[in-house]
Amino acid sequence: MAVLSVVFCIALLIILISWAKLNAFISFLIVSVIAGFLLKLPLTGIVGAIQKGMGDTLGSLVGIIVLGAMLGKLVAESGAAQQIASVMMQLFGPKNIQWGLVCTGFIIGIPLFYSVGFVLMIPLIFSVVYRYKIPAVYIGLPMLASLSVAHGFLPPHPSPAALVNQFNANMGLTLIYGLVIAVPTIIVAGPIFSKTLKSIQNEPLKAFVKEEKNERSLPGKANSFLTSLLPVFLLVLTITLSFRLDPNGIPVQITTFIGEPISVMLISVFVATFSLGVGQGRSISQVMQIYEGAVKDVAMIILIIAGAGALKQILTESGVSKEIADSLQYLSLPSLVLAWLIAAIIRVCIGSATIAGLTTASMVAPLIVQQHVNPNLMVLSIGAGSLMFSHVNDPGFWMFKEYFNLSLKDTLRSWSLMETIVSFSGLFGVLLLDSFL
């Protein structure tokens, strides 16, 4: 009966978000209250569980997400992202321009949130299309595949970062494993798959092409790359040093402190404030205004994560989360595949990768302990599932359709299929990596 109540609540969540068009945060709170009633928690306990779930989820996460948004916003506003794109275009040249766009999308996708990276990269894609007379979908889809993979697989993006927190995984290791899986996934879903799309002839809307900044006003090349990728460098460096240092010494304590995600992001934002802000002629107050805008950009994402945390706590305190895990472990599917499948189903129903990932986490978390699953790989498996088959209920689907001026059929054939390939390739990479660990 308890499991049926959870199934009903998940279905209700899907209906409220997809059909009733209710705000996702409000939907999570409504479903959390209903779940508390159905699972027979005491009335006073329902509100307490919701508050605890939101607090515990955001406690170690809100700083990472906000600081990540600040860094990404400054990378975009300062022109560092444009400088990175320009360097990659020069490096790869006209003959390999598609690979240049793929690498650019991946590098920029690490510090930037998906929607920001999407809008930022569209002018670059279209300028290449008009300059070299190359089909827009063929040249643009691989770059957007890179952005999508970074969004779903790599912390400090909201969903992977939240999953790392819920599963007590290691953010540095998750990032390293994610990079290992992301590269082949991008190649398959990007340059290889796009070869089948050359026949899609369309004229992207010139109204979406924005004027780029004058190159003289851009930050330096080394500055742009190093500042944008500083979180990656710090996480990889500290996790590498931790294996080599004496675990009881002071150096490893310093390394551990620096390697904490909140420390990594704070150091990165501090460096960026001067390297991409004050160093480029902006005042401190102007940089702070950019940061304030970044917080507004991610406010709803933070609330959605809080709402998912509330539902997770209701399921945990009622004991049904463990009951579900006990039932799932008797299925013939491996835990990593099962988590991927649940995330994929919720993603197809709801359209949001973030909500799909966080909802799945609340259901499968006990499996990690019961079946000794690698928590870092569980993050990536759910991340891959949460990207499955983007279609008409996903805002990203419509952004791609309208920017590239495509028919519904061609959007499904290109964008939706690309996301599906990313999802399956990601799962294959997770399972392959799991066989070696």
UniProtKB/TrEMBL annotation:
The chain crosses the membrane at residues 30-50, 57-76, 96-129, 136-154, 174-193, 225-245, 257-278, 298-315, 335-361, 373-392, 412-433. Pfam families: GntP_permease. GO terms for molecular function: gluconate transmembrane transporter activity. The keyword Secreted does not apply. InterPro entries: Glcn_transporter. Keywords: Cell membrane, Membrane, Transmembrane, Transmembrane helix, Transport. It comes from the Bacteria. Its main location: membrane. It is found in: Cell membrane. It is a multi-pass membrane protein. GO terms for cellular component: plasma membrane. Belongs to the GntP permease family. This is Gluconate:H+ symporter. It comes from Xanthocytophaga agilis. The lineage of its organism: Bacteria, Pseudomonadati, Bacteroidota, Cytophagia, Cytophagales.
